[in-house]
Design a protein that fits this description.
CATH class of the largest domain in chain B: Alpha Beta
CATH topology of the largest domain in chain A: Rossmann fold
Number of strands of chain A: 16
Largest sheet of chain B: 5 strands, parallel
Strand order of the largest sheet of chain A: 6-7-13-12-11-14-15-16
Number of domains of chain B: 2
Number of helices of chain B: 11
Distance between the termini of chain B: 58 Å
Strand order of the largest sheet of chain B: 2-5-8-1-9
Oligomer: heterodimer
Largest interface: A-B, 52 and 41 residues
CATH topology of the largest domain in chain B: Rossmann fold
Order of helices and strands of chain B: HEHEHEEHEHEEEHEHHHHH
CATH class of the largest domain in chain A: Alpha Beta
Radius of gyration of chain A: 31 Å
Distance between the termini of chain A: 59 Å
Shape of chain B: elongated
Radius of gyration of chain B: 21 Å
Number of domains of chain A: 3
Bound molecules: adenosine-5'-triphosphate, magnesium ion
Low-confidence stretches of chain A: 1-8, 238-275, 310-318, 329-335
Helix content of chain A: 40-55%
Structural class of chain A: alpha/beta
Shape of chain A: elongated
Number of helices of chain A: 18
Largest sheet of chain A: 8 strands, mixed
CATH architecture of the largest domain in chain A: 3-Layer(aba) Sandwich
Strand content of chain A: 15-25%
Low-confidence stretches of chain B: none
CATH architecture of the largest domain in chain B: 3-Layer(aba) Sandwich
Chain lengths: ~575, ~270
């Protein structure tokens, strides 16, 4: 298989294969999502799906208006080809989504007709896509060529040869049918005229029928392998042959998988509920944006002792380096450098020259020629508040990390940094189950060292219930007020959406959270939000205000973002 | 006018393709010597615009890129040692104030807020610049105008101007030009056919949507011009884009792969 950048692609793979635990297919989901969203202009979710072992038929991608399911089976593709195959599958999906009508009525059509008409439609939309993106022809064509070399005379073989003839103008075929298809296709000048091509497909299917080639819908698969199974094109309702068993199996698989993981989650949650010990209750008001009043004692925050299973395989060491190495180049130490000091470690060159000049001019001068690092102990206290609601179990974008795991990572990195510098930090978490139960956990207390036990505890925190942000923020401030440091700040890390099961108006909790943030800010306390969801933009801005939040879009930049945020939080 | 400023004059007309009515607006602002602030992403044409206006209004242009370590002496000037002992040297700002012209402070938010305040007396009706060290008050030349620029997109929570600084300026909000105009600019600056320029602009648009998805900033007009120059000198589009757009923009391997995908989608191999 040829591609433009064998070397660079390899270096990308090498990055991952050197870390043996990383799955190349999963790690491709992010770059491919960015690619497909870019080509499409709106969001398409990519999802890997496994193959049922008992099913011997080769599988194909499955497309819907919102998702593209990509087969994750060794039978489907090898690791070395997977990028090119998925890339072609995405481009093909983009072509359908842009140009194909959805769910055509299929009841009166024979399976063979459906197969031929679908192949024509595939070729039509690919042509249209190639007009938009001239380069994608290279992405497709190789797969067609490969398909031809290994086929004999059969229905599938003729379809494959037609597919190639329709995409590659150089290709010559000796079959009458293939050439007829090609000539009719090329004669049809208006590519956007779907019904003309549909008619053309029916004629070709009819010709094919006359050839009496055996066709068994059970064993027919779309070719080449990057093309989806075309269930996107047809409405099979009322269509009662068993042609669709295949699809049902796929769908069932998907349903079963998600059902299982749901059960598992619920189980874990139930376990945690039993193990919790209540420590303290406190009531808070809540802002009602309809009545424009504070409803007093409306919410109950319950502090609970956090219990954990005591198992986690978090490597504390690897983490140390990533952020502490950044620290040496960060501006945070520069802002700590005091200039024009009486004494210090380094000469302040500008001050020295100026001093000498002033002396020469006979002006007053003070020999304050040194710079020195500021070393104020514990000048700020930062409370990190983790959103531990159910929604944080979701994966970030198409990565294999959940929001919660990113939250934990961020909190731990920041804690390391802050403790290293000598400031004070606490990590608390919350989730809510109506206004009567806002669960609040102190995972790391102010002044507590970040030892392996604490790290494990934070690592094992699980997510459930909802996000009543306002009450949690108010309680976090109650905790933070005990601190007597110069600067105080709350950093909320969340996927962004406040919600609870007893609230039905979208903006109610958003407005309450906004009011809570305002209240806390009145006490000279900064409130900043780090959102682990790029879609969170609009309401996060409402709650925290422009410039007071940051959206985390990739993990690599997390340490840098944290340094930035920390610089800001400890500023006057 | 003094020959000191001769070096700061722009001799030949810079190529500038207007994107809206910014030229007229600038002329009016200049007529009343209103200080200007130009906001916009990197490489979208802010500097080029000011060069063009300086040429059009026949004014010297003194530019200075700001950074965090700058002190007010870097702006106004300082005494330096020489054979005679010590002599005062005007800084770039003082030059423009004394002899007339546009002083352009690039990336002004990089400067520490306590440094920025030296421009305050210059940018209200007083139009004076006190040189404390020298004991002189410079009254601004009638031609003097202050222009600052910065990029609000970096979203760094630590960097902003004080309200008292901001409110001394009228603002222009710049962005990358509309697709057709941007392609025209690239085609002109790098002498590539307009069809190739169109493709480059499309790729840039896709990259700009990746802001907040792992990119701090998308591909700029400047980068597209570099790509165009490489292409017109005979390097194939894939390599040209790799060099000037993809790898220059980011180190994130996922984003690199996605950007290369966009390039591949627009340019056929061979
Ligand atoms: N409207 C335009 N007319 C002509 N050329 C333009 C225009 N816009 C951008 N350019 C081209 O883009 C290049 C980059 O623009 P410029 O250097 O002015 O960017 P900038 O906005 O000042 O960036 P930075 O913030 O990084 O300084 C210029 O050298 C010029 O070739
Ligand atoms: Mg298809």
């Amino acid at each position: 298989m040829s591609n433009h950048r064998p070397i660079k692609l390899n270096s990308y793979y090498k990055d991952f294969t050197s870390q043996t635990s990383v799955n190349i297919r999963e790690s491709l989901m992010r770059p491919l999502t960015l690619l497909s969203n870019g080509l499409l202009g709106f969001e398409l979710k990519l999802q890997l799906y496994g193959q049922d072992n008992s099913d011997e038929l080769p599988i194909r991608p499955i497309l819907s208006d919102t998702h593209l399911f990509l087969p994750d089976a060794d039978l489907y593709t090898s690791d070395s080809d997977v990028y090119l195959l998925y890339r072609a599958a995405i481009a093909h999906a983009v072509a359908h989504l842009r140009y194909s009508p959805r769910k055509s009525f299929s009841r009166t059509l024979k399976p063979m007709t459906i197969a031929v008409v679908s192949a024509i439609e595939d070729a039509r939309v690919e042509r249209l896509l190639i007009q938009d993106y001239p380069g994608v022809i290279d992405w497709f064509i190789e797969f067609h060529i490969k398909e031809i070399s290994c086929s004999q005379l059969s229905f599938s073989s003729l379809i494959s040869r037609m597919n190639l003839a329709l995409i590659d103008s150089q290709y010559q075929d000796n079959s009458y049918w293939v050439n007829k298809a090609k000539n009719m296709f090329e004669a049809q000048k208006d590519l956007s005229n779907y019904s003309a091509f549909r008619r053309l497909g029916s004629i070709l299917a009819n010709d094919m029928g006359q050839m009496r080639l055996p066709f068994d819908p059970h064993y027919y698969v779309v070719s080449p392998s990057y093309r989806d199974d075309n269930s996107f094109l047809w409405d099979y309702e009322d269509f009662d042959t068993s042609i669709l068993d295949k699809h049902e199996i796929h769908d069932k698989n998907l349903v079963i998988q998600s059902q299982q993981s749901q059960d598992l989650k619920t189980e874990i949650c139930n376990y945690n509920v039993m193990a919790e010990v209540e420590l303290e209750r406190k009531n808070y008001p809540e802002w009602d944006n309809r009545l424009l009043i504070n409803k007093n004692n409306w919410c109950t925050v319950i502090e609970k002792l956090f219990t954990w299973t005591g198992e986690s395989n978090f490597e504390a060491n690897s983490m140390d380096r990533s952020i502490l190495s950044l620290l040496s180049v960060s501006s945070s130490d520069r802002s700590h450098r005091l200039r024009r000091q009486w004494e210090g470690d380094e000469l302040d060159l500008n001050a020295a020259i100026e001093g000498m000049i002033n002396r020469q001019l006979g002006l007053d001068f003070e020999p304050r020629f040194f710079t020195r690092m500021k070393n104020e102990k514990h000048s700020s206290s930062i409370l990190v508040l983790l959103d531990m609601s159910e929604s944080t179990n979701e994966l970030v974008g198409n990565m294999s990390h959940s929001v919660l795991s990113v939250e934990k990572k961020a909190a731990l990195l920041l804690a390391q940094l802050v403790i290293h510098i000598g400031d004070r930090i606490a990590i608390h978490g919350f989730s809510s189950n109506t206004r009567a139960e806002i669960n609040y956990y102190r995972l790391l207390e102010f002044g507590e060292p970040l030892d392996p036990v604490v790290i494990n505890k934070i690592q094992s925190a699980t997510a459930r219930y909802s996000t009543r942000m306002g009450a949690a923020l108010r309680h976090a401030f109650t905790c933070l007020r005990q601190e007597s440091t110069q600067h105080r700040a709350i950093l909320l890390i969340s996927d962004g959406a406040p919600s609870d099961v007893d609230v039905f108006f979208n903006d109610y909790l958003i407005e309450d959270a906004r009011v809570a943030v305002e209240e806390v800010r009145k006490y000279n306390t900064k409130v900043y939000c780090m959102a682990i969801d790029s879609l969170a933009d609009s309401y996060i801005r409402t709650i925290f205000g422009y410039g007071n939040y940051r959206i985390v879009d990739n993990l690599q930049s997390l340490p840098k973002y944290l340094l930035d945020i920390y610089d800001y939080l400890k500023m006057k | 006018m003094s020959s000191i400023m001769q070096d700061y004059r722009i001799q030949t007309e810079p190529f500038y393709r207007p994107t809206h009515n910014e030229i007229v607006l600038y002329e009016q602002a200049y007529k009343h010597r209103i200080p200007l602030m130009i906001k916009g992403p990197t490489g979208c044409g802010k500097t080029r615009f000011i060069e063009y206006m300086a040429w059009k209004l026949n004014l010297p242009l003194v530019s200075l890129a700001c950074n965090e370590d700058m002190s007010s002496s870097d702006l106004v000037g300082r005494y330096l040692f020489d054979a005679q002992g010590v002599t005062w040297h005007d800084g770039p700002l003082t030059l423009a104030v004394r002899y007339g012209g546009i002083c352009y402070l690039d990336e002004v938010v990089e400067m520490r807020q306590d440094t920025t305040v030296v421009i305050h007396p210059l940018t209200d009706t007083r139009r004076i610049l006190p040189l404390d060290k020298k004991g002189e008050i410079v009254h601004a030349h009638p031609d003097f105008q202050l222009v600052v620029s910065y990029n609000p997109g970096y979203q760094s929570p630590t960097k902003d101007m004080k309200p008292s600084t901001r409110q001394r300026f009228a603002a222009f909000e710049f962005d990358y030009p509309d697709a057709a105009i941007e392609a025209e600019i690239i085609s002109h600056e790098s002498s590539i056919p307009i069809e190739i320029a169109n493709n480059l602009v499309e790729i840039a648009h896709k990259s700009r949507k990746l802001k907040h998805h792992g990119l701090e900033e998308g591909i700029s007009t400047r980068m597209l011009i570099y790509a165009g120059i490489l292409i017109s000198s005979g390097i194939d589009p894939h390599t040209s884009c790799d060099m000037s757009m993809v790898h220059a923009l980011t180190d994130d391997p996922d984003i690199i792969l996605a950007l290369q995908g966009f390039v591949d989608a627009y340019f056929k191999s061979n």
